[in-house]
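Entry type: protein chain
Record version: 2
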Amino acid sequence: MNRNLRKQNFISSFDFDKRLAPYDIAGALAHVKMLSKCRIISDGDAKKIIKGLGAIADDLKRGKSLPSAEDVHYAVEKELIKRIGVVGGKMHAARSRNDQVATDLKLYLKDEIKNIVSSLLSVQRAILKVARNNIDAIMPGYTHLKQAQPILFSHHMMAYFQMFERDIKRFKNCYDNLDESPLGSAALAGTSFPIDRGISAKLMGFARVSENSIDSVSDRDFATEFIASAAILMLHTSRLAEDLIIWSSDEFDFVKIAAQFTSGSSIMPQKRNPDFLEIIRGKTGRIYGNLTSILTILKGLPLSYNRDLQEAQIPLFDTADTLKDVLAVLSEIISSLKLNHEKMEEAFKNDYILATEVADYLTKKGLPFRTAHGITKKIVEHAIKNKKNLSELKLSEYKKFSGYFKSDIHNRLNIKNVIESKKSLGGTSRLSVGKQIAKAKT
């Protein structure tokens, strides 16, 4: 490679920003229509430019490519001038590549956020289906990866529904924050042409116009906020992936991952590995890296526009692509899950997981909870020492620890009854989880 070509490739962004071509054309069309309406260019010139841009857009939809250039913005203008002559250059009046690229990125992100929210809704629908279809499945709930209290599997899955609900809110907020047009800010100082930025903003579908031209061309908060929202979303997908990986292990065997989302071992024919879930977990680090990358690019930049901002597009595009892939796969994995109800119930090898119920029982009889907690701890130690379940202890044994125990204690030591007793809002009873599912469906 000769030196001049190497220099050209070094500064070029065309290989990654060519995806912005439809948005660059959309912005150009709105700008030209505004220039014509404000009598900055003639109606005749505007019609020629609009027709030329439309033809380029049609070719792109048919799969044709733009000729290579330093960036997609020059490529579109270069192709337009090639097709309609020098009049094509008139569309660049009262704008700069600085406000142009900011506009393109915002238009691109508006579409990507819609796509991502749609994909998140698909994941939520998959969660609702598996929760509803397995409403009776009981499993141990864990804290510190130690059995804590019995819960419904559907309750556990609905926790992820709520996480993804917050993600949707974050992306919608990101959308609202970026929904303002920077077009017409020009290089940084605005323009002396008598433009009407409101016209182009409305034509592009922006809710409002940006207020400060310096901020408009240098702002990449919207890209940073998008990647930050993506990082939190990936945190949630990674936690779900981890749960499913653990549950699908031979030791747990709570769930079966569909074969198409697993891979065989190169030397151990008996194994099917949850590779797709592991890749989801691994891609989380990639998105975290993208967030660190864009924050580092932006942190020391003086106002206003600097070419460093070109590099911020790479983590932005990669994040959007990664999210769409992850959510599409995750939705299918959840939809194809098969539960092993027997294994879930077998996980209750003893009923010490019901110790909290004993403490609650004493509290309802009148003891302070902290006192009840201490008594119950001693009862559990006694049961373990004598190799008995809590339900196997006789009433006389319970009474040795407290006179508050009555014959009804054994009615409390049934896992299904315990679950059904958790009727508080957000609790794990079938009634409560059913309400969560019903509300989520709306």
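Comment: The CA atoms of residues 120 and 327 lie 7 Å apart.
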